[in-house]
Amino acid sequence: MKWVLYNLLFAAVYPLLLPGFILRMSRRGGYAARFLDRFALYPPEVAGFFHRDLYDSHSPAARAASPSDPVWIHAVSVGEVQVAGQLMREWRRAEPGVRFCFSTTSSTGWKMASREVTERDALIYNPLDFPNFVKSALRTIRPRALVLTESEIWPNFIRAAKRHGVPVFLVNARVSDRSAPRYRLGKFFFRDVFSCFTRIFAQSELDAERLRAAMRESDAGIAVVAGSFKFDVAHRDPEKEAELAKWVFGGDAARPKVLLGGSTWPGEDEAMLRIYRKALDAGVDALLVIAPRHFEKADAVEANIRAAGFGCVRRSRGDVRGGSAAGREVLLADTTGELMGLYGIADAVVVGKSLCEHGSQNMIEPCLCGKPTAVGPNTENFRPVMSDLLDGGGIVQAADEAELGRTLVGWLRDGDGGLGARAAAAVERRKGVVPKCVAEIREALS
Prior knowledge:
By secondary structure, the chain is α/β, with parallel strands linked by helices. It has 2 domains: 26-228 and 431-445, Rossmann fold; 238-429, Glycogen Phosphorylase B (Rossmann fold). The protein has helices spanning 2-28, 44-47, 78-94, 107-113, 131-141, 155-163, 179-185, 187-194, 205-212, 230-233, 238-249, 268-281, 298-307, 339-345, 364-368, 383-391, 401-414, 419-429, 433-445, and strands at 71-74, 100-104, 122-125, 145-149, 168-173, 197-202, 223-225, 257-264, 286-292, 311-314, 329-332, 348-351, 373-375, 396-397. The chain has a 7-stranded parallel beta sheet, sandwiched between helices. The chain has a 7-stranded parallel beta sheet with strand order 10-11-9-8-12-13-14, sandwiched between helices. The longest helix is centred in the N-terminal third of the chain and has 27 residues, at 2-28. The chain is globular and about 65 Å long.
């Protein structure tokens, strides 16, 4: 009965969310061409990738999984796609013949995922979580395993996979402060979903305990603590760093110090501009680069830059430094997939969604690059990562904008006192999670 109610509620709520969803996708672009994927209706070239006979929906266990069947991996955000990509690369090292079906739900995720798939793989948009759509998708794709990332809990999708005899895994699992009470209060609902998993690899003991609180006691062993995939995901790209250095520094013989706001959210751009002005007033030869988390908001960020009295050099337009506001410009990096390269050439970094929003973006990447990194007070989504970095003296967490400004100006003017080196060492010590999890998943499948 509860699943009937869930499907009725989902069917009632989804049309209300659809206008905002379509508007967001139209702003980001690139979604309409494969919109029918959401209904498990795939173009011939994609459907042909899954060339074997379809499931007998009434007896899914009648046919055993084959090593030639794809592993279905689902990820949404840029960070989750990077997690999935690292898992795929490790799996290919262990099993060169493996094939993947990679699904996502956003055009931004699609762009990132397209860099992770090979000619042996398929890339699709995930079906809507309605029984008929997920059932049809499973019958077409015939995965030998389903791997979800972080917090992608889609009840019909997961339960249908279980009914079709597909082992289901959740990697880099986390439960936010906001989601934890929902899982606990909704245990009567979620316990049936979590019982479908073969294994859940949690980022921390706290995440594992929050998941177990929503499970039956007999299923508690499904959730194990593995650590954060994101320590393994981060890697430097010297070619991209060199390319971005040409854009950032232009023809400057004496390079200014680069202050970078990475994955900023609304409100944080203005804070970075105020801090930048303080650095200039203190006599620091500095240059501010802002990389907003959502590039479709770049017009608003540019308006804030100009309102603060600076010229705007915008990456997506191909702008170069040295225009009418030479020396008083701010660089706007409004492109996808270049943030890691920017971290590599920065001198001081602020990680967004931590000052004016809650949760934080990924602070591991600038720390891996050995850059002095600061965050605001709100880092709930990276609690185990922050604990590791703080214990290693590799990051600064500022209580507010004033403290953040003092910290950044000090780094730009006087150096970081070895903080960046400690950050890189802390990241290196935590690596190795992905190979361990891939080995355990493959062992479970064998």
